[in-house]
Amino acid sequence: MATIIDNKTLQHVAALARLEITPEEEGPLLGDLERILGHVAQLSSVDTSAIVSRRPVMTELRPDEPSEGLTRAQGLGDAPATRDGFVVVRNVMGGEDA
Amino acid sequence: MPNGLPRTLDQYRLAIRAHELSAEEYLDETRRLIERDDPQVRAFLHLRLDAAQSDAQAADPTSPLAGAPIAIKDNIMMAGERCTCGSRILEHYVAPYSATVVHSLVAGGAVVVGKTNLDEFAMGSSTENSAFFPTHNPADLTRVPGGSSGGSNAAVAAGFALGAIGSDTGGSVRQPAAFCGVVGFKPTYGLVSRYGLVAFGSSLDCIGPITRSVRDAAIMMNVMAAHDPKDATSVKRPHVDFEAALQPSLAGKRVGIIRELQELDVQPEIAAAIEMAREAAVKSGASIVEVSLPHILSALPAYYIIAPAECSANLGRFDGVRYGLHVDGRDMTETYSRTRNAGFGTEVKRRILIGTFVLSAGYYDAYYKKATDVRQLITDELDAAMQSADVLLTPTTPTTAFRIGAVTDPLEMYKADVFTIPANLAGVPAVSFPAGKDTAGLPIGLQLTGPRWSDAELLSSANVLFTALGGES
User: Does B115 qualify as catalytic in the annotation?
Assistant: First the structure.
């Protein structure tokens, strides 16, 4: 079977997943992913042309109405950094943090 | 447990109601066992024994669980307690609310003794992937307890709790139940609320009970099964009394054997246990039928596309911003990736990468779409097989518990779930129950799978076989 995933693809996928792959991790990860993806690729030989995938049966959603939930303090209780009742993040648009 | 103390939830409840025992006395004994044996077994990530003591004092002896000690897998939230998911990224996370199922258990008289160890984010089959430490199998401390609910199963097997709950995405309640010699039940998808369970594979995840007898699983299900408006996949069903539904025989039942699974390599003692169960079923009035599931062996590869795909989406929420570990970077993107790199272990990263890959442009149809089609094919085949059989009998695992450190290849580890995965893909109920031991004295588990919403009947059938093979009624 042809190589499914090379280091360029791995770095691209890692960037999409917001993961950093260190040079030491790259070799073993490539080997593992190659074998796992090689194993699951056997599905390509299954004939599914007649299959109509069905969405799982869902119950009706509850009415979209305000109800008791977490307080602001509870919601922020585990945040790494807060200020004035808000979560603090890096400047997402670039430039200096406020 | 020392002689004379109840071994099961059922016996415990009878003793409490007969005033032969109090919840506090039983908790004291449990505490002694935990303090003596858990340093070796390491089932718990955090204990709350002092809080449990006051809960036991206040427990209502007439409630369904009557103050029984119960353990909770550490990916299910209990307000005010840590919920780490076995991961560094949530090492210091404190749950701001309780899972619906934890509410139900506590309201039903459960006394929560602690939160149990697991493979990180429930990804693994041995509990060796916990970021903190591996759990050991109480039947042989050199062996794994299975996973990912290894801590919950080890806790019940070791007598640290009369029951526990775990999550089952591909077998994570049932496979460790088989390895530890206890009962593990995965209900029909939608029967037990997952609100407050940290999501891994949302179309697969179920919460189920882990107990020392099938009757105990029914007792716990009576408390756990309820419609929950907070979980959109929770289904409104007529009330069922799982314990009252337990029947004494298998009269008229058709026990299905899956033709395609006969070719699989299983440990000889497990094959022998299947034979014993078949004989016991026939003796109890059941007939044996052979069913064909032509694509059942495609379940494992389909699962290892679908589960990583869903995990890669679900674990996107761990970004170091709103909760959990935070490692600062130069900008937002670097903060995300530094946090996630420091917080996630190898197996979690592997699965996120596979999931991201199979969902990415150019690969989606060949992998993810194909896997969901194969999933539908297997589901249709299972539904068809259930027309000619009331339950399907298989081993739970191909082998008994392996040694800690013995399986290092991720693909080999995945194969431990070959018998358990189909039930998750199809959303049907399945239960693992103990059926003797192998020549090394390690527990063997057998599995019964039933049609959707046949949970009570399935437990009844399992109870007949479990007691016929020497289990406690």
Answer: no
